[in-house]
Specification:
With 682 residues, the protein is of the alpha+beta class. It has 16 helices and 35 strands. It has a six-stranded mixed sheet with strand order 3-2-1-4-11-12, sandwiched between helices. Helix 3 links the parallel strand 5 and strand 6. The longest helix has 31 residues. The two termini are 38 Å apart.
Length: 682
Amino acid sequence: MDEAGLVVGVDVGGTFTDVVSVDRAGMFEVMKLPTTRSAPQKAVAQALEQLTKSGVTPDAIEKFAHGTTVATNAVLERKGGPIGLLLTEGFRDILEIGRSYRPDMYAMFLKRTTPDFLAHGTCVQTVRERITSGGRVVTEIDEASLRSAIAALVDAGVNAIAVSFIFSFDNPAHELAAKAMIAEMAPGMPVSLSHEVDPMFREYERTSITAFDAYVKPLLVTYLGEMSEDLRRARVTPPLQVMQSRGGLTAANVASSRPVRLFLSGPAGGVIGAKAAGEIVGARNLISFDVGGTSCDIALIQDGEPIVKSTGSIGGYTVRVPMVDVNAIGAGGGSIAWIDAGGGLRVGPHSAGSEPGPAAYGRGGEDATVTDASIVLGYLDPGYFAGGTMTLDPDLAFRAVEEKVARPLGLSIEDAALGIHRVLNAQMAEGIRLVSVQRGLDPRDFALVPLGGGGGIHAVPLARDLSMPRIIVPRLPGVLAACGLLAAPVEHELFAAFNRDLSAVRDADILAAFDALEAKAAALMEAEGFAGRYDVRYALDMCYVGQAHFVEVPVARAEIDGVLEPIAARFRSLHETIHGHGEGGETRVVNVRIVASAASSVASATPQHIPTDAPLSRGTRAARFETVGAPVAATLYDRAALPEGTTIDGPAIVEQSDTTTLVEPGWSATVAAGGTLILTRT
């Protein structure tokens, strides 16, 4: 590998940590390391150690990007906090009241949808102050009240404080005063201010996301700080970059100040990687599914762009933060198969993870998992798992499937293993329908892109079930999330409340609001090292007067020229498309929004496919497929040896260091541009 211009991507998953390094010539190296769940930040030190062993010197690294699930896991596992919450007097119960929204309208027993676990009791304090809509101060902030509230939070032992005063997005003076007093009374205390985290109207959503930001901030600051320190100790000079939820990178120090933007850091890398893989073969409509050891992340890419939504869900709680639209389900290689009270076979959402892992890992796991079933069916080579870094024990896999599934259901071991796959595939297919059919989109108009360590094993059954005509398997599907880190731009989204009827808006007002956001973006991009070298996209969040929800309407600065009716017409069209109806009447601009984006300064090449001199075929292995009643001899292929233009017919198993791809009977695979494998029906 040519060390010049080396770029490194590290994606820390629940089971494996994926590492990809690519030089300017496109030569690459791939590693899969078991994730240390108790200290995932160790992954960077392990990756650097492995790269050093392969001859890489730290000064050759020009970019180091990272995707993480730490923020998400902190919420799911309740490992953040405790935090304090400062609110306006009279609004103490914002988090507990929430919205009168019932996600399951026919449920007999309601489950709480408000994250009141974030702060309650003495950890919630109110301050005498009041600002009205438009930013007018009605009641000046009472210093004695503020000091007493902060002292109560410090006495309660909080490790971060969230401040969310009414209408602070119109006038942040009181929140800034609170921050200054917190710094005086509790030096070093992490603080999240709502006008910085989420400067938009609707007090519950703004308070909730600010509280989440404070909840994960101490953990993320420590995590990213230790990781950055590991890089400095290793003499890696480029700053650590982190993937954000909307699919763009940012410097670790910026990410630490806004950690709530990292909720989907890990899955976003996979979506960006899938987009890049589609571009190589000219495919712009894609459905990606990332099968790891713990979960499956499903996303839709339309016209070459991932869908980015302004509101997402973490652990069942609605969070107002921009993120790639990913449907995550508990279905992965480590998902545990079990029998429910009615005698039915279930798979997941519980996972064996990497510690102890599937039974075949030989680390003490006794439950039957999807990986164990794959070994029973002949899909995986026990001696060449995770690029040969692990050796699996097939006897333990057979025993687990027999004892946990086959014997209780009265099935043969092979039929039980096939049943495990059928159940998992059905769950994944339903997840794909949720991002396509439920939105009025036909999956047959999209290509399926499998990624993650297990994606290639499940691709054909899913495509067959959904009648999808083509499967695009990227060159490095098992570590595509790490590849996506290398393809992602540095990006910052900024927005601000505007709240004016369009008929009363002057173009100068909108341009002034854009200018204020651009000034903030310029400072951020300068800190990233891209001063003057970035593009800006503009949008207005609009609604009909009286509506509580809004639609993001893309605009160009040149359109803000005094005649705003074309923008209103575009809003009406988008509203009709998204919601199926148009209200008519007066429109309102709720927020102004910009996205500053810059391509990487490092000319990172796409990983090249240079066939090796190894034999194309490695012989055959007996495998059992759903469409064939008995085991068949599947030809084994070494993907690294397949030259461009090669076509192979199923049944076949294509093996590579980071994953395995099944070509079932009735399907064929062709090696296309860049070593991409395209599967179609024969």
